[in-house]
Specification:
The complex is a heterodimer of chains A (about 140) and B (about 400). Chain A has about 140 residues and is α+β, with helices and mostly antiparallel strands. Chain A contains five helices and three strands. In chain B, helix 1 runs antiparallel to helix 7. Chain B is globular and about 75 Å long. Chain B starts with a strand and ends in a 13-residue tail after the last helix. The chains are: A alpha+beta (about 140), B alpha/beta (about 400). Chains A and B meet through strand 1, strand 2, strand 3, helix 2 and helix 5 of A and helix 8, helix 10 and helix 12 of B.
């Protein structure tokens, strides 16, 4: 099976590889997939709580070239988007951009799942932080 | 050194130029039908076929009359299993095989099950080998055939064939072995190994594709099989169809070369394979060999690089032709059933690479491949969340994964 040039480019020069502090309240972490299924994606976003804009995104992926490319592309797209705009990214956008063949569509689904998981994690943290602030305020 | 490098000799081998030269005249001037009994064209073809039969027989310790030509190992396996099941149907309907057999055996067994046979699929031990006590225990008075491959096509482990053959003989059960990966690589002898029926193919031993043979024992015991192809009654009635003379000549020549060069060649294969193995194990942590090294083809290496997915590794070493047990490289999106049968876990199957060395590989190529694999595994581990977690001391087996 031949890979598209865009998949090859992301595989050879993956963007935004790395990890951020998962305990940072501004960082949302999504980890999806399973080793026995052959792919695990970790995707992280760092959000400015004032503006809701994603300042940084990082990934690490265990998986085939298309899985690596899907998550690399996702981090590229996430940067500069608001949290709500990020949730609008669909797996089909990734399929189209990378020209993924049908057998690799699950890689794009996994990337979409990873985005959602990261944002959900960020939002959960924010709720906790806000609740904490409020209770802190009330006790005063 | 020329790129890309071919290191997938278990899939197929290039034809040896000497084999090609032997075949060449049989396409054009010596084109006769080996079944033409009344003119020189036919006699010439028949003589070439008989020479090939002898060359094959000499490599495996058989008699030339015991060689039946087929289109390859898949046909040989089908003919052996179906032919025995039908011929010995009155004696019994039970067949014993192993979980790590080639699909040509497993799928044939599944078909036979639909037709009323009972099949026992023996599991293998973690080293890839069949347990002989388990085999003994599986034999019943209805058992007519044991079919166990000589050497595995993925992990290269060599089964205890002589012992299996001995058990079969003692219990009066026929023993078939698919020996395509072993013949020409290690000494195979149907007498010493107590084999009654054996599948052979040309394209795994530097011969042509689309040509194989089935060894069918004629004495002690005399094995009979029901033909699966009806027609002119060629090959003593076991396989009708005009003989593919050029390819048969090639198969014979390939066997002759293997017989003469095997001692030297297998030493060279083992040297190159061990060099590759030692280098990879020395430079990369958490790297595991699949299947025992104690009983193994000299040209096979099957390794799992933990935390790295096989297809992405293949992508990184794209100027090297090897195979992976990863689901992503298979049509079914299932990881290798052979590696799964070893019980090491699906994640190691996803991370496996099969190196199959062969006659035309050089030491320079092995050095290049080793370095390339080391570089790419390191790069992909930098990218791997699993490697990161493992390094942080997380027990990956205890993580709640979101399976999909």
């Amino acid at each position: 099976m031949a890979y598209s040039n865009k998949v090859l480019d992301h595989y050879n020069n993956p963007r935004n590889v790395g990890s951020m502090d998962k305990n940072d309240p501004r960082v949302g972490t999504g980890m999806v997939g399973a080793p026995e299924c052959g792919d695990v994606m970790k995707l992280q976003v760092k959000v400015d709580p004032e503006t809701g804009v994603i300042e940084d995104a990082k990934f690490k992926t265990f998986g085939c070239g298309s899985a690596i490319a899907s998550s690399s592309l996702a981090t590229e797209w996430l940067k500069g988007k608001t949290v709500d705009q990020a949730l609008a990214i669909k797996n089909t956008d990734i399929v189209n951009e990378l020209s993924l063949p049908p057998v690799k569509i699950h890689c794009s689904v996994l990337a979409e799942d990873a985005i959602r998981a990261a944002i959900t994690d960020y939002k959960t943290k924010q709720t906790v932080v806000t609740a904490h602030d409020r209770s802190h305020a009330e006790s005063r | 050194m020329k790129l890309p490098i071919y290191m997938d000799y278990h899939a197929t081998t290039p034809m040896d130029p000497r084999v090609f030269e032997a075949m060449r005249p049989y396409f054009t001037e010596m084109f006769g039908n080996a079944a033409s009994r009344n003119h020189a064209f036919g006699w010439q073809a028949e003589e070439a076929v008989e020479t090939s039969r002898k060359q094959i027989a000499d490599l495996i310790g058989a008699n030339a009359k015991e060689i039946v030509f087929t289109s390859g190992a898949t046909e040989s396996d089908n003919l052996a299993l179906k032919g025995v099941a039908q011929m010995y149907a009155e004696k019994g309907n039970h067949i014993i095989t192993a979980a790590t057999e080639h699909k040509a055996i497993l799928d044939t067994c599944k078909r036979l099950e639909k037709e009323g046979c009972r099949v026992t699929y023996l599991p293998v031990e973690a080293n890839g080998l069949v347990d002989l006590d388990r085999l003994r225990a599986a034999i019943t008075d209805k058992t007519i055939l044991i079919s166990i491959m000589y050497a595995n096509n993925e992990i290269g482990v060599i089964q205890p064939i002589a012992e299996i053959g001995k058990i079969a003989k003692e219990r009066g059960v026929l023993f078939h072995s698919d020996a395509v990966q072993a013949i020409g690589k290690v000494p195979v002898n149907v007498i010493k190994d107590n084999i009654d029926i054996m599948s052979i193919t040309g394209h795994k031993l530097y011969g042509p594709k689309g040509c194989g043979a089935l060894y069918v024992r004629r004495r002690n015991p005399r094995v009979q099989i029901t033909a699966q192809m009806d027609g002119g009654g060629h090959e003593r009635g076991m396989r009708s169809g005009t003989l593919n003379v050029p390819s048969i000549v090639g198969l014979g020549k390939a066997c002759e070369i293997c017989r003469l060069e095997m001692p030297e060649e297998s030493r060279r294969m083992a040297y190159l394979r061990d060099k590759l193995k030692d280098r990879l194990l020395a430079e990369l942590d958490e790297t595991y060999i699949n299947g025992t090294m104690d009983s193994r083809l000299p040209n096979n290496l099957n390794i799992s690089f933990a935390y790295v997915e096989g297809e992405s590794l293949l992508m990184g070493i794209n100027d090297v032709a090897v195979s992976s047990g990863s689901a992503c490289t298979s049509a079914t999106l299932e990881p290798s059933y052979v590696l799964k049968a070893l019980g090491a876990g699906d994640d190691l199957a996803h991370s496996s690479i099969r190196f199959g060395l062969g006659r035309f590989n050089t030491e320079e190529e092995v050095d290049y491949v080793a370095q390339k694999v080391i570089d790419v595994v390191r790069k992909l581990r930098e990218l791997s969340p699993l490697y990161e977690m493992a390094k942080e001391g997380v027990d990956l087996t205890k993580v709640q994964w979101s399976a999909h």
